[in-house]
Amino acid sequence: MRVHGRTVRTIAPHTLLLNKPAGYTTTRSDRHAERTIFDLLPSDCGHLFHVGRLDKESEGLLLLTNDGALAQELMHPSKGVDKEYEVVVDRPFAHKDAAALLKGTWIEGSVARVSSVRQLGPTKISLVLHQGLKRQIRVMLGQLGFKVQRLIRIRLGPLTLRGVKSGSYRELREEDLNALRKAAATPKPKRTPAPPKPKVKTLTFTNFTVTPATAKAGAKTPLTPDATRRRSLRSDQKPGFGSPRPRKTSRTQARLGKKP
Predict the structure, then answer these.
(1) Is 55 a catalytic residue?
(2) Is the dihedral of CA 91, 109, 193, 186 positive or negative?
(3) Domain map of the chain by residue range?
């Protein structure tokens, strides 16, 4: 291909499925990160970018691609691609906890909820999400008093970790990409009503008077009786407190005997 008389090489779309181990940071480079996901890939994969992310302690399925259109289809909030996780918590999980996750909660001004919950053992559960809020599963379980001991993403739409060991990867075939696009085109499930937003606690102050923001600039703030009494006490202790300072006499005025 030639553009403005110059030969331009086109790069073929390239998408990998990585089984990320714990302890690797999802980034290309970070001076604070000991190990990144690109340490697990060949050196010629530096042109790829990750689709979504997994935090350092989390494991499992992560896509890397140079196909911007595909990434947009998968990451757009209006899309309904399933993300399934297996989670191990520090204490037994009960039905009431599942109901709380399905009902949803508020995280940093957004409603966070899971689409389905399935119990795999006393402390092991399977969660399906259509969202991708930062550390969503850890925060939601933390609000219920759980500590996540292990978190693995085992599925993204039609893709699973089958045949891909931890720390290894495989290149997606054309049929995998077509299945992903079909899943992204599926309408997102209808949202259930959002849980009530938590009320912000109001603080009650005493011995203070608040001036509204709409007050005129330069307007004096009224003093409360206690503030007035404290000011009067300071006036008694320091003679001349609050009175205007006398004007200084300049040298020229002093020499001429003039008053200021």
Answers:
(1) yes
(2) negative
(3) 10-81+158-186, 85-156
pLDDT digits (tens, 9 = 90+) for 3-38: 666 655 667 788 999 999 999 999 988 888 889 999
CATH code of the region 10-81+158-186? 3.30.70.580
133-164: pLDDT as tens digits: 889 999 999 999 999 999 999 999 999 999 99
pLDDT band at 256 (very low <50, low <70, confident <90, very high): low
Could you say which architecture CATH assigns to the domain 85-156?
Answer: 2-Layer Sandwich (3.30)
Amino acid, res. 25: T
| Coil vs helix vs strand at 171 | strand
Give the long-range contacts of residues 160-167, CB within 8 A, separation 24 or more: 160/61, 161/19, 161/60, 161/61, 164/17, 164/18, 164/19, 165/19, 166/19, 166/20, 166/21, 166/59, 167/19, 167/21, 167/40
Which one-letter DSSP state was computed for residue 8?
A: -
Identified catalytic residue from 30, 39, 55, 90: 55
What type of residue is 172? Answer: L
SS3 232: helix
Q: Which helix (H) or strand (E) holds 174?
A: helix 174-185
- Using left for φ > 0, alpha for ψ between -120 and 50, and beta otherwise, residue 142 falls in alpha
C-alpha span between 75 and 100 (Å, rounded): 26
DSSP string, 41-62: S-GGGTT-EEES---TT-EEEE
Equal fold, 10-81+158-186 vs 85-156: yes
